[in-house]
Write a sequence for this structure.
């Protein structure tokens, strides 16, 4: 029984093998010659602004060469070009067939190149001499004429695919997209028109489109086209956010919450981004003191593939920091450490000052500031733990900061070594860290900067001062050595002014304390920057340096950002004494970019008139001497008399050889012609005595010191003045 079954199985297998062999014998054999027919490529036609005859045969040779690399037999170019049909401008199909038969070609290829601007198009037509298949054409476009070789490569590949029967891509299209542009999708896929159909590449393209994050589904379909397969990427877009809504937000405006969420209206809905926005909103609420806030998101469908994003908020009560406590602080009281912090406990004015509100980023910075504080007091190995925040219902927030102080270290030996620009004794007088004092990292940093400035002021622009510290854990001391390296002295090679569209170069250069051809000066650099700020013409001054034409030369660029220096002011008011009042002032502090100042003022009321013009030349012939002139005219009707005055003044300021950076002497001559009229009989004697004309001719001399870093919004410096005025006598006039 088993034997007969085995025999029947063997017979069936034999019959199947025989059947398969028979089918294979019946199939037509495809020879290499049939797979790769012989082709004849004719000279190209050229259409462009400047037709080039040599391009006709160059493109013919290029295409012939590319086809040969694909294994396609081609008729030699010289043999093709000797045939009469090759020189015809537009040969007919019959003529091309005759050429192919004469040359023994199965396929005759004609082509043309058209140029419009930089853009080119390449057109090929192929005629099957045997008539086995209809004629077909290929078309390639490139944006730049310099890419003609790439166009030939691509069209050769397509031609080869057509000849051997490989499926080509007719076109690549996108369907189903509503908001995302097709060009944006096609830009990330590798599949291109005219290429052979590659399913591995299509799989990569599908993944690339899906990874854009805009689609819930991506499918690939193919359809038959005129020149191969049409590849279709069918996409289903994710919904967009058509509405953002907040519910329960009574303390914070919806506009502020929208900005903090980071979610934009009509953006693609992404659940992960929405979750992150909830966390951002919670942090925002906590910064405002609402530490117990609860926020959940809800999604509702809307028409046109849109959704509504709704944030449901339970704000809760505002929670304040009630207590900040420290663990391990033995050397400093809690109050001292709290003074170091920006975070503070709730106070009586918390509703105004926002004290007691928790900001975690600020709290993290406070922990770092406490660490720096300890290290600046000599506790080199102090460690401050991460602040712990806990919420006590009905009370508020309690912050606990754990500190490990370690031992306090003191300064032992302080020395200066290396390349010294001054004796070590003089340099050591400049440093702040001295023996016996607690070690302080901040003072160490300042000492390094101070010593570097000393080197820089001597022309050593690239000098380095490196602090070397040696700790003695047993003695709890630190030895400090400042090692100086001079490098080469550096000269200013070129000083360039940039950014001054209005202010003239000389106005800036005359306030510089550095000069081309002189040695580098750190003090001069700092002083130059300060002087330019003091002018009041610039919002910002930035000095940039770079290596010059040699290692010992430096180029300096002074970048200034100008600000408006002119003003026009109108004002109006009313008072019970003067009645209606109107004022006007026109001022320009940098007249025509020269640095000169011109101010005109006018004031009028029911009982007074005032007019004056003031002009100042701050640097006469670019020297440090200034000069100015004033004229004025004013009239005022007092209760007892009327005063009418006109006159002028001449002013000058000049260095006096003392404190040249800030101190100046000045002199002013004043001429005032006043007429007093309408004096009441019961007016005071002094007024009745002045009735008539009063001429004042006086001179004022004095000294002032102006060290303000800026004319306005001063951050440092002061103004001091001492003056004496003399009138009459040899100056004339009748007022003494």
């Amino acid at each position: 029984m088993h034997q007969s079954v085995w025999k029947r199985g063997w017979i069936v297998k034999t019959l199947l093998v025989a059947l398969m062999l028979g089918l294979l014998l019946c199939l037509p054999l495809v020879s290499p010659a049939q797979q790769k027919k012989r082709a004849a490529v004719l000279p190209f036609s050229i259409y462009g602004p400047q037709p080039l005859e040599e391009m006709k045969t160059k493109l013919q040779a290029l295409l012939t060469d590319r086809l040969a690399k694909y294994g396609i037999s081609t008729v030699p170019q010289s043999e093709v070009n000797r045939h009469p049909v090759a020189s015809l401008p537009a040969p007919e199909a019959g003529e091309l067939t005759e050429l192919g038969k004469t040359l023994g070609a199965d396929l005759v290829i004609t082509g043309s190149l058209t140029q419009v601007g930089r853009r080119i198009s390449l057109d090929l037509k192929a005629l099957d001499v045997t008539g086995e298949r209809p004629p077909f054409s290929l078309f390639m476009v490139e944006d730049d004429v310099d890419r003609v070789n790439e166009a030939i490569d691509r069209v050769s590949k397509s031609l080869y695919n057509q000849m051997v029967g490989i499926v080509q891509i007719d076109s690549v299209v996108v369907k189903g997209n509503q908001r995302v542009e097709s060009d944006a999708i096609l830009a990330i896929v590798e599949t291109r028109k005219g290429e052979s159909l590659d399913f591995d590449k299509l799989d990569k393209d599908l993944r690339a489109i899906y990874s854009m994050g805009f689609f819930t589904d991506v499918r690939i379909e193919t359809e038959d086209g005129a020149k191969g397969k049409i590849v279709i990427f069918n996409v289903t877009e994710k919904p967009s956010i058509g509405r953002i809504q907040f519910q329960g937000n009574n303390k914070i405006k919806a506009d502020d919450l929208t900005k903090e969420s980071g979610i934009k209206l009509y953006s693609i809905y992404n659940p992960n981004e929405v979750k992150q926005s909830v966390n951002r909103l919670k942090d925002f609420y906590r910064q405002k003191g609402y530490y117990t806030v609860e926020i959940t998101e809800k999604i509702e469908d809307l028409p046109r593939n849109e959704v509504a994003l709704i944030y449901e908020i339970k704000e809760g009560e505002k929670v304040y920091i009630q207590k900040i406590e420290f663990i391990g602080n033995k050397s400093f009281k809690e109050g001292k450490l709290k003074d170091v912090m920006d975070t503070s406990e709730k106070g009586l004015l918390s509703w105004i000052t926002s004290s007691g509100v928790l900001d975690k980023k600020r709290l993290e910075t406070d922990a770092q500031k406490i660490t720096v504080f300890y290290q600046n007091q000599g506790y080199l190995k102090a460690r401050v733990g991460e602040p712990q925040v806990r919420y006590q219902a009905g009370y508020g927030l309690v912050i606990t900061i754990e500190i490990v102080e370690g031992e306090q270290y003191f300064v032992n030996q302080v020395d200066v070594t290396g390349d010294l620009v001054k004796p070590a004794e003089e340099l050591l007088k400049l440093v702040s860290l001295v023996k016996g004092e607690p070690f302080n990292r901040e003072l160490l940093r300042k000492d390094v900067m101070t010593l570097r400035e000393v080197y820089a002021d001597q022309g050593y622009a690239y000098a380095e001062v490196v602090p070397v510290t040696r700790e003695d854990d047993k003695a709890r001391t630190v030895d400090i050595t400042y090692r100086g390296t001079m490098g080469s002295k550096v000269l200013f090679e070129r000083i360039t002014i940039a950014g001054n569209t209005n202010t003239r170069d000389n106005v800036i250069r005359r306030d510089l304390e550095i000069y081309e051809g002189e040695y580098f000066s750190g003090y001069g650099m700092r002083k130059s920057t300060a002087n330019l700020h003091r002018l009041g013409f610039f919002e910002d001054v930035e000095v940039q340096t770079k290596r010059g034409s040699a290692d010992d030369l430096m180029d300096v660029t002074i970048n200034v950002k100008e600000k408006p220096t002119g003003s026009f002011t109108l004002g109006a008011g009313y008072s019970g004494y003067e009645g209606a009042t109107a004022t006007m002032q026109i001022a320009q502090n940098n007249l025509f970019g020269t640095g000169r100042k011109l101010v005109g003022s006018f004031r009028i009321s029911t009982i007074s008139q005032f007019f004056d013009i003031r002009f100042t030349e701050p640097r006469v012939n670019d020297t440090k001497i200034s000069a100015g002139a004033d004229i004025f005219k004013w009239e005022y009707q007092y209760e007892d008399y009327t005063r009418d005055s006109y006159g002028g003044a001449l002013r000058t300021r000049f260095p006096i050889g003392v404190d040249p950076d800030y101190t100046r002497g000045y002199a002013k001559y004043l001429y005032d012609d006043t007429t007093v009229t309408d004096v009441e009989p019961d007016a005071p004697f002094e007024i009745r005595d002045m009735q008539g004309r009063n001429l004042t001719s006086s001179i004022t001399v004095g000294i002032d010191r102006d060290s303000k870093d800026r004319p306005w919004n001063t951050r440092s410096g002061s103004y001091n003045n001492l003056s004496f005025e003399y009138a009459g006598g040899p100056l004339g006039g009748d007022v003494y």
Summary: The domain at 169-237 is CATH 3.10.20.310 (Ubiquitin-like (UB roll)). DSSP finds 18 helices and 30 strands in the chain.
